[in-house]
Design a protein that fits this description.
The strands form four sheets. Strands 1-2 form a two-stranded parallel ribbon. It has a two-stranded antiparallel ribbon with strand order 3-4. Helix 3 crosses helix 6. Strand 5 and strand 6 form a beta hairpin. The relative contact order is 0.12. The longest helix is centred in the last third of the chain and has 33 residues. It has two domains: about 190 residues, Fumarase C, Chain B, domain 1 (Orthogonal Bundle), CATH 1.10.275.10; about 290 residues, Fumarase/aspartase (Central domain) (Fumarase C, Chain A, domain 2), CATH 1.20.200.10. The protein has about 500 residues and is mostly helical. The radius of gyration is 26 Å and the shape is elongated.
Length: about 500
């Protein structure tokens, strides 16, 4: 059970909540702050003070006052009108992350929402009631209004939730659980949707998958080193300490660990003096991507614990301030940076694939790793597929955050496009994982030609795992199936990685 209180939530907590069936509970101190904040909203309504989002319209309609008897209708109309998401839904795991992050943000006690609404959100998390939320339609400023509105629809009994691969009406779910849909009171609709939780939720899932992927690139690259008789001197600690990047030092250390005991790798001068960059510069290239991951982790863990709606209730309810914490620029930059870091891991992986299959570069391995060169094509088109994916990633890596289109009659005249950046980062990660699956497929075949009895014990264990999933290439077959099996194997490791 993980206690939510509006601060202190980590990416490792999120791993447990998303992948390991951990549940949430509400911290007592956070509950007290929520109750106090709600009393402030009720006082504002009672005293007929004009405060944005409580008894006014929204966006360009902020100057329109709303009568006390219409504040419920105002919130209902807000959710319905803003639920205009488009396209395929976010993965269910992202929807779950969105629920958790919005709940955590509201528990900070700055939003004026009732405790019963937060208890319902916690119930949804703990009973795995996950909203169906379309991916497209957010500008990433004024919050992720469209996606979060689809989340809020479920609370009021008008949205859809996941049921395996199907979508079912939330009204049916509440009836099944003997619960009534929530009727939103003053400010509650705005509190639910005015935040950055769509981009941050996708960002959290992206980061967890990327961290796992970054570790996987190392053992896969190490197996390619064995298949190509790579030179381990390039990983000598002195080289990397001389440069000073801790992430680079770490990659070099882990590469040596993976290759410990291998009789397939070489020393400089035994076969050649130095390797190509895709082998020799693994610590420098992969290490730089680890630097990206560290930056993104820092920004995500701040945003996961941030109050991102508007207005915020401060000074024990005495002050209500309109601001712009819903603007997703920080996460937009982080996601664009993540895109580049992960795309580069795929880029260098594809270069190692080329070395494994190219008879002019692969140190005597069969052309295209074919069991009968000419009669059988072997891994020839596997490299094509990898090249296609890395090329697509280069397009997706174009920064979403450099774009902005004004909205709401130019009241919201600069937006982050952070949710687009997060979605594109997810696509890059899926592509990169398949490139790595192809490298793993080629590397396992390469070491078989060299002699698996000569592998390092650690990498031999990985080779055995892969051979339980896909057989050796003894004749041409439909390699699409192999790629997908290895992709699934790599993806599952996100659940347990630390």
């Amino acid at each position: 059970m993980i206690s939510l209180k509006g601060n202190g939530l980590t990416l490792e907590n999120m791993r447990a909540l998303l992948y390991q069936n951990e549940q949430v509970k509400l911290e007592k101190t956070a509950i007290e702050a929520v109750v106090k904040s709600r009393k402030a909203v009720e006082t504002i309504v009672k005293d007929r003070r004009i405060v944005y989002g409580i008894n006014t319209g929204f966006g360009k309609f902020s100057d329109v006052s709303i009568d006390e008897e219409n504040v419920r209708v105002l919130q209902l109309h807000l959710i319905r009108s803003h639920a205009c998401g488009i396209g395929q839904p976010f993965d269910e795991i992202v929807s779950r992350a969105m629920l958790i992050l919005r709940l955590n943000a509201l528990l900070k006690g700055f939003s004026g929402i009732r405790l019963e609404v937060l208890e319902r959100l916690a119930y949804m998390v703990n009973h795995r009631i996950h909203p169906v939320i379309p991916q497209q339609g957010s500008l990433g400023a004024s919050g992720d209004l469209a996606p979060l509105s689809h989340l809020a629809l479920v609370l009021i009994g008008e949205g859809f939730v996941w049921d395996g691969e199907k979508h079912i009406a939330s009204k049916k779910i509440w009836a099944k659980h003997n619960l009534q849909p929530i009727i939103l009171e003053a400010k509650e609709g705005l509190a639910l949707i005015n935040g950055t939780q769509a981009m941050t939720a996708q960002g959290v899932v992206n980061w967890l998958e990327s961290e796992t992927l970054a570790y996987q690139t190392e053992w896969i690259a190490a197996m390619s080193m064995e298949a190509l008789h790579g030179i381990t001197d390039a990983f000598h600690p002195a080289i990397h300490e001389a440069r000073g990047y801790s992430e680079q030092v770490g990659v070099a250390q882990r590469m040596l660990k993976w290759l410990e005991g291998s009789k397939l790798v070489t020393k400089q001068g035994e076969k050649r003096v130095q390797d190509a960059y895709s082998l020799r510069c693994i610590p420098q290239i992969h290490g730089a991507s680890w630097q990206v991951l560290e930056y993104v982790k820092e920004k995500l863990e701040i945003e996961m614990n941030a109050a991102t709606d508007n207005p915020l209730i401060v000074d024990n309810g005495d002050t209500v301030i309109s601001g712009g914490n819903f603007h997703g620029q920080s996460i937009a930059f982080a996601m664009d940076f993540l895109k580049i870091g992960i795309a580069e891991l795929a880029n260098v992986s594809e270069r190692r694939i080329e070395r494994l299959v190219n008879p002019q570069l692969n140190e005597g391995l069969p052309p295209f790793l074919s069991p009968q060169p000419g009669l059988q094509s072997g891994a020839m088109i596997l490299q094509y597929a990898a090249a296609s994916l890395v090329s697509e990633n280069k397009t997706l890596a174009h920064p979403a955050s450099v774009d902005s289109i004004p909205s709401s009659a130019n009241q919201e005249d600069h937006v982050s496009m952070g949710t687009i950046g997060a979605r594109h980062a997810s696509q890059i990660i899926q592509n990169a994982r398949r490139v790595l699956a192809i490298e793993a497929l080629c590397a396992t075949q390469g070491v078989e030609y060299r002699g698996v009895n000569l592998m390092s014990p650690s990498l031999f264990s990985k080779w055995e795992d892969i051979r339980k999933i896909i057989p050796s290439i003894t004749e041409d077959r439909i390699f699409h199936k192999d790629i997908e099996k290895l992709n699934d194997y790599l993806k599952k490791e996100t659940i347990k990685n630390k």
